[in-house]
Write a structure and sequence with these properties.
single chain, mainly alpha, Helix Hairpins, minor pseudopilin epsh fold, three-stranded antiparallel β-sheet, 10 helices, 3 strands, binds manganese (II) ion
Length: 246
Amino acid sequence: MNRRESLKLLAGAAGAVATGGLIGRPALAQTAPAQPSGPYKLPPLGYAYEALEPNIDAQTMTIHHQRHHGAYVNALNGLVGKYPELANASVVSAPETLLSDLAKVPLDVRTPVRNNLGGHWNHTFFWELMTPGGAKEPAGDLKAAIERDFKSGNEMMDKLNAAGLGRFGSGWAWLVVTKDKKLDVVNTPYQDTPHMELAAKPVVGVDVWEHAYYLKYQNRRGDYLKAWWNTVNWDKASENYKKAMA
Ligand code: MN
């Protein structure tokens, strides 16, 4: 091999590395893509894509955040022309008010608003609820309420895992504060949030769409749910509880 040939080979290898070809993975940007124009933005994760390894792998986190959540954000920005109220600052900053009252959304855009504003809200909540650091178990008022309404933290987690496993197809499992200020475990289909049909406020929530776990866990949703608890930021859950009880 002459010098020119070896340089060509090296350039080819560098290209393969850049596109992920040598390790058999698609190339993924390690930083968030350019923000869309429009009132809705993809919120940054508060941690690195690999920070939740080994419970949730970096590739799943990257695709889930950039492409899945990104798609809900892009779709929302695309709906503003049909339903200008979506761009109101109060809706952008606190979508849960509109999600609690979807009947006020015109019928021709209600389903896409439900799916995409719900998806944006759910994912924003989900990213904030996970952390590589943070408290590893419930404390204070939340711990007391869990023990009052479920006997123990383990029983609550078992019930939530069962709710996640029991959601046929795509959806979410939740620990919520109900209308009568009790804790309960529920699940919701698609990107429905607990505010919609249940008028409940989420404390803890886990995405059980296959896109949230399939690359690492394939069909083993139960294994994903068990591992997912290791990522929960109980400080954030306590904050959610306090807000839900206010
Ligand atoms: Mn998702």
